[in-house]
Amino acid sequence: MVGDFNYWDLASAPMTRDREGYWTARVPWVQHGQVYKYAITGPDGRCVQKADPFAFHAETGPATGSKVWDIDNYGWSDGTWMREDWQTSPINISWAAGAIR
To answer: Which of 9, 59, 80, 99 could bridge 63 with an S-S bond, Cβ 3.0-4.6 Å?
Structure first.
């Protein structure tokens, strides 16, 4: 894992795979708003940096980094929807046509 918090150093915060197959890295010094990416080394030895597809926040384009985002104190406003039968209610998830490659 690389980012502002380790000066984009590949060796500073390596990720390890646990018994369940999840990849994790411990970065206790990371701060809210810092940019990060996953550094992924393929079988050919080439390393690429990828944004976190599950990040809560990201840089504004054309930059592509994910941002560390603290949501502990976020004021969620979906209580009514969560109390109702959300599993059978219609939902619309859309994106820009050119966003997925």
So the answer is: 59
> Tell me, what's the pLDDT at 43?
93
CATH number at residue 55: 2.60.40.10
Q: Collapse the DSSP code of 23 into the 3-class scheme (helix H, G, I; strand E, B; otherwise coil) and give the result.
A: strand
Contacts of 33 (CB under 8 A, 6+ apart): 67, 68, 69
User: Rounded to an integer, what distance in angstroms lies between the CA atom of residue 56 and that of residue 52?
Assistant: 9
pTM over 0.90: no
Q: What single letter denotes the amino acid at residue 65? A: G
- Residue 5 phi/psi, 5-degree rounding, is -70, -20
Does residue 55 belong to any structural domain of this protein? yes
CB 71 within 8 A of CB 36: no
Q: How many domains does the chain have?
A: 1
